[in-house]
Amino acid sequence: MSRKVATITLNPAYDLVGHLPIIELNEVNRVKMAGLHAAGKGINVAKVLKELGMDVTVGGFMGIENQDGFQQLFSQLGIANRFQLVPGRTRINVKLTEDNGNVTDLNFSGFEVTAADWQQFVTDSLTWLNQCDIVCVSGSLPGGVDTNAFTDWLTQLKTQCPCVVFDSSGDALMAGLKASPWLVKPNHRELEGWVGHKLDSLEDIIKAAHQLHDSGIAHVIVSLGEKGALWVNSTETWLATPPACNVVSTVGAGDSMVAGLIYGLLMRESTEHTLRLATAISALAVSQSNVGVTDRTQLAAMMARVELKSLN
Q1: What pTM, to 2 d.p., does this model score?
Q2: Which of 158, 194, 202, 263 is 20–30 Å from 34 (CA)?
Q3: Do the beta carbons of residue 254 and residue 136 sit within 8 Å?
Q4: Are strands 219-223 and 237-241 parallel, antiparallel or unpaired?
Q5: 1 falls in which pLDDT band (50, 70, 90)?
Q6: What integer best gives the mean pLDDT of the chain?
Q7: How far is Cα 22 from Cα 20, in angstroms, rounded to an integer?
Q8: Neighbours of 19 (CB within 10 A)
Q9: What are the start-end ranges of the E strands in 108-189?
């Protein structure tokens, strides 16, 4: 089994992560800095997969003016880099966690992608991604990328690599779902956006997840924050509940879950085992300032504390 994985991050970012007791508007807030990380959803996924022992290639767009932090990370981790450099700077996202666990994101704008840049990316990516067993496409779209063009690219990608994992939000999520990827991981609110109404109970969420599955998506995983995650496929419905954790930062928790899902699926693990693993990795992520799995013993202990329930 080749187990070749690629992650695509079209709009990466430097994450400036901080912590403070409470955000006071119109006042000076003293923030304890937790870290500055070269990140972006697909890059977070790749970092976790690499630490789990997978060979990963990353791609997407990157601003040429402040690429050094990313290049250093890829070199340090031994991750193959197929990012396309474009004029401008990669954006900075400020993520502030309060004592009560609330997270406030301040996402700045970054580079713009031209029509020529996009066409080059489409041509190049469809050439090398066809060698992969799973391709993960994560995150938002940078300025200049048309949502219809994104849907078309994702549809073409499926013909090259049928196992496309997709995790996004907003307009990018809606555009990507039109291509019916193999696996998607919306959160509760994003699923509400797709179905068009509030989902006030677990039964409502399960029903909507089945609707999304019936639209042509093989695996629908709905992340429910501290309440865990729901997995719906053609034969099974599972609910995973993580143990209570000391929240340092929720940044990258969803990406960590995606990495766990990909790892379990590539290793041909059962749905039950894969969801347990993914939930445990996500739970570990919230207890640290950056994503990653550095202690397998700690991961095994967390897996043992995840509660799983079949809802078939």
Answers
A1: 0.92
A2: 263
A3: no
A4: unpaired
A5: very low
A6: 92
A7: 6
A8: 18
A9: 134-138, 164-167, 183-184
